[in-house]
Each structure stands twice: as structure tokens, then as C-alpha cells.
């Protein structure tokens, strides 16, 4: 296992253990002190446990080498894992929003310093996890790890809203401002909207990759420049590039002088492949079709 793979697996395991701990803590304290936003956040973390297990499984499958049934590799397993995380976040957003809205129509509970401290600890710990996981996800171009990091970010928002909501409830109690006592429930609605936004963005990205959407134009332009830098290339007839999980597949049709031998054409394709793959570590395969070119 490479260093990057070990780092990715470690980040997922840390996420899983953290989610289990935070789920237990938030649900127990949320039930004990009747904190709607903390309880909803705890149930959101419970969904995160399932999502993290899915991300871990997808990451392991995506690292499997290409085989007879999957000649392009298993990279899209990570995309499926990312899509599943987005689905879990969507369900969590709807659940949090529903229960927070219902809580607005009931007499608010007395705010608790323990619930406040739990939300604050969760917010700080999840932010550290978000930075750590996102850094490794970007370095390894792991879709499932980046999805897990965004899940941590959603938890940061949720815990921040809980801190603010419970804090407002304390202010409302201290200064007899009754409407501020609903800060806990109102924060839950804000959380649901923030989590919903992240879920939609993640879901769209996963859908685009599964539908073979091309890489962004800037990236494609970089590939074009590297191909055109080879002297024998007279014209790029077509180039396509798509993400396949944590790596990119490129196929191109290029025109070279028609009088060149098959061996010379083969050597040119090797030069192009080497140039692209040395400059872009996330490119796993470059397929090139040669067309003959003649001076008019």
C-alpha cells in the first residue's frame, strides 16, 4: 500500500471513529437536555457513520487494478460512494428541517451548558477533521475522501448553528426575550438548508462524472498544449478527457505526416503519453489514434 493510500485509509478511519463518538455524545445529551438542534445533529452524525463506511468501501474497491470485466479500472466506485454520501446528507437535511420546524410550535426547553459545550467541541473537532481530510483528498484526488471532508464541513455548519442557537436561548432566558428562546429550533432550520446545499452540490458532481462529463476547459487546454509541443504533431483532430473516479482518461485523434513509418508513429504516441502523464499525475491512461497528414 502506498503512502497516499495509507493516509487516505487513516483519514477515513479517523472520520468513522469520530462520527461514532460524536453520534453517541450528541444523541445522549440531546435527549437528556431536550435540545432539538443537538439531537438532530446527532442523528445526522448517525447517517454519517453509514456514509463513511460506504466511502471506505468505495475507496478500497476503486484501488483495485483493471481486470477483464473492468478494463478501465474501478475508479468510479469512489463516485458512487460520493453520491451515496450526498444522498445521506439529503435525508439528514430533510430530517433536521422537519423536526426543527415542528419545534418552533412547541414551548422551548431550558437551554443547557452541557449541550452548548458538546456542540462547541463537535464544531472544533469536525473543523480539524475537515481540513485534514480535504487536504489528503485533494492530494490523492479521491472523490470519496473529498465527499467525506464536505460531510465534515456540513457538520461544522450544524454544530456552529447549534452553538449559536443554544447561545441565543441563553440570552433569551437571561434577558426575558421570549422569542430568542426559539434560537435552538431556528438554528436547526438554518442547518438543514446548509446541509441541503452541500448535498445538492455533491450529488451534481457525482452525476456529472457518471454521465462522462468532460474535464474543465482549463485542464483540457493544458493537455492540448502538451500534445502540440511535440514537433511531429500537425493537427489535433479531436481530444476528449473524462474523470473516472480519482484518475482521468484521455483519448485523442492527432494528425502526423503520412510518410512516417508505423514505428515512428508509435514513438510519437509514447512521447505524448509520457509528457502528459509526467505533468499530470492524475492521468491514468492516454489513448491516441493517428491520422495521416499531407502537405496540400
Walk me through the structure.
The chain has 296 residues and is mainly α. The protein folds into 2 domains: 208 residues, Cation efflux protein transmembrane domain (Alpha-lytic protease prodomain-like, Up-down Bundle), CATH 1.20.1510; 77 residues, Alpha-Beta Plaits. It has a 3-stranded mixed sheet, covered by helices on one side. This is Cation diffusion facilitator family transporter. It is found in: Membrane. It holds the Pfam family Cation_efflux.
- Number of self-contained structural domains: 2
The helix/strand class is mainly alpha
Percentage of residues assigned to helices: 55-70%
Q: Give the CA-based shape.
A: elongated
Name the beta content range. 5-15%
Query: For the report, how would you describe the main beta sheet?
Result: 3 strands, mixed
The top-level CATH class of the largest domain is Mainly Alpha
Key traits:
single chain, 296 residues, mainly alpha, Alpha-lytic protease prodomain-like, Alpha-Beta Plaits, 2 domains, 3-stranded mixed β-sheet, 3 strands, elongated
